[in-house]
Design goal:
By secondary structure, the chain is an alpha/beta fold. The protein is built from 10 helices and 17 strands. Strand 5 and strand 6 form a beta hairpin. The longest helix has 22 residues.
Length: 473
Amino acid sequence: MSHPNIVVILADDTGYGDVGCYNDDSKIPTPNIDRLAAEGTRFTDAHSPAALCTPTRYGLLTGRYYWRTPKKHSLVMPYEPPVIETTRPTVASMLRERGYATACVGKWHLGLNYPSRQSPAEQYTQNEADIDFARPLDGGPVELGFDYFFGTAGCSTSDAPYCFIENDRAVDIPSVPSTEDLHKLPGFYPGLMAPGWSETQVDATFVDKAVAFIDEHLRRSPGQPFFLYHALSAPHIPWLAPEFLKGASDEGPRGDMNVLVDWCVGKIRDALEQRGILDDTLLIFTSDNGPQAGANGHSSAGPYRGLKNSAFEGGHREPFVARWPGKVQAGAICDEPICLTDLMATFADITGEPMPDGAGEDSFNIAPALLGQGPCEDRPAMIADTGGYSAKVGNFGIRKGKWKLVVPAPSQEDQIKKRLRSDIEPGSPPLLFNIESDPGERTDLSAQFPAIAADLHRLLEKAKTCGLRNIEA
């Protein structure tokens, strides 16, 4: 095999402080992720491109920031259309062109086209009651470079429709209304469910399907490399752990869901090992954004300020562990700043060809850091934003070297302010931090270094008009 298999496991809301190898005081046991770190390299300065899930998934798969899309900062809510054009190159389409079999298993959350019962065949709807779930749900993974998809349309346990989708078809038609006991759960979006739907079995099902994909691929094309993007549902709310993991952590229900994340990582690693392909695989574990607050004294974001939906470090600094024996150094710690948008350029380099034309304008090759060969290619800055729900604006964090500027969203009407759920008052002045001496972002230095703050603000505005790769570092 000339190229490695590539497996990316993406948790949903696991924080920097949730994983044992990142936090000695974690109240959550994560032996499988810790084992990957011992067998590979642990990155301490890895970031998601956003502090919410849809924007990060977009960035990971396309190598560009989500705020470059017409949708700007808001999430894809239930029944909304796709945000990735079928003509746009993705990590999956790029790797498929290089001989990879490709699969997406898990949470999609980047939109689908839902066919209408009432309108002509080419028309779509966002009205749940009007959707014909027996027809293809297009615009999703199988049109964006994935040979196979098994997963859910949105947040698997809190977004309708509550059903599994295989390729572009619902496995079981969602026809049962969700119940009042579920509606009381945090963040649960009422909607139709498939008969027999179980909130607690989603990730176990995803693991089974991921392993089934590996087995089927090895049966059909044992000499062909594969790319598996395994997007977990856990530990996203509503924190309903399977029975065998209830009470598995000292942090509480959210902690138990992070134990489920670790269990899934272990199952995938074991499947690769049992089939004799573990050492031929680049295996990466990371998360899509910062965590919800920990309980019982557990620091879910570790030493960093902010949580999910924050432009402070805790909202976007992620655990990132990579294993690939003989290539990725075992037991190493890497402090190189990296971003999940970098996976496209990095996988292009690993497979020996440039990125597709016009693709990945915010993606930088981190293979040198991944393979222990030295610093990565220069980047002019690293940016993370807070997404938002229905808001068209968000808070931004821009980092260059040791300096980071946090730029609050401009002041908006009260309704928009509430939707931002911001930990910074909209319209307030930008905050400047020295990340090297003040990683917890406690001391604002904007008054002391106004020129640096102004330069970073100008760089942010310039980046909004063109890809980072088009700006000189």
